[in-house]
Amino acid sequence: MAKVEIYTTPTCPYCTAAKSLLRKKGVAYEETDVSRDPQLRGAMTQRAGGRRTVPQIFIDGQHVGGSDDLHALEHRGKLDGLLGLTA
């Protein structure tokens, strides 16, 4: 199974949607709350190629984007492969 990292804030509905999709698939993830730590948010922004919004999602170290990007991968049938799930 792939390592999934997600940068979030507590009140973000897109974060909730992304985490819900991952949970639905039975995928564990490492969550980092960037709401109260400017250094963590800066590190996230740098790692995400300048994207400052949350969530920012990484699968096995590869930046896949935000919630809309994650759901688009699911819609195209590509998310399971990235997550290392078997059909």
Question: What's the quick description here?
Answer:
Residues 4-64 form the Glutaredoxin domain. The protein is an alpha+beta fold and 87 residues long.
Report what the structure shows.
This is Glutaredoxin. Belongs to the glutaredoxin family. The protein is an alpha+beta fold. The chain has helices at 13-24, 38-47, 67-75, 79-83, and strands spanning 4-8, 30-33, 56-59, 62-65. Strands 2-1-3-4 form a 4-stranded mixed β-sheet. A hairpin with a 2-residue loop joins strand 3 and strand 4 (62-65). Helix 1 (13-24) packs parallel to helix 3. The mean pLDDT is 96.
Q: Which structural traits does this protein have?
A:
single chain, 87 residues, alpha+beta, 4 helices, 41% helix
Write out the strand line-up for the largest beta sheet, numbering strands in chain order: 2-1-3-4
Which residue ranges are poorly predicted, with pLDDT under 50 across at least 5 consecutive positions?
none
The radius of gyration computed from the alpha-carbon positions, rounded to a whole number of angstroms, is 12 Å
Strand content: 15-25%
Task: Name the helix and strand elements from N-terminus to C-terminus, one letter apiece.
Answer: EHEHEEHH
End-to-end CA span: 13 Å
Largest sheet: 4 strands, mixed
- Please tally the helical runs, counting DSSP H or I stretches of 4 or more residues: 4
Helix-and-strand structural type: alpha+beta
Number of strands: 4
Helix percent band: 40-55%
Provide the residue-averaged pLDDT: 96
What's the shape? globular
